[in-house]
Specification:
By secondary structure, the chain is α+β, with helices and mostly antiparallel strands. The chain contains 3 helices and 3 strands; from the N terminus they run αββααβ. It has a 3-stranded mixed beta sheet.
Length: about 80
């Protein structure tokens, strides 16, 4: 499973509108991959969580999966 697919799956399980989950993949200048996450405006709080705990947990899981594949990934919530 790719890191993009993993992030889409995890977030779609958290939100009320899973059809509006959108992950866009970009390459940065440092050869890193940036995953840009967009969700419905009503679901933004569910993805970020209290004090950013859920967002940090999502970043940790995705980074761990990427490292297993020898990649470097960062997650940005838009």
């Amino acid at each position: 499973m790719s890191t993009k697919a993993l992030l889409e799956y995890l977030v779609s399980q958290l939100v009320d509108n899973p059809d509006e989950v959108e992950v866009t993949e970009f390459e940065s200048k440092k050869q890193d991959t940036i995953l840009e996450l967009r969700v419905a405006e009503a679901d933004t709080g569910k993805v970020i969580g209290k004090g950013g705990r859920i967002a940090q947990a999502l970043r940790t899981v995705v980074k761990a999966a990427a490292l297993k594949n020898g990649e470097r990934v960062s997650v940005e919530i838009v």
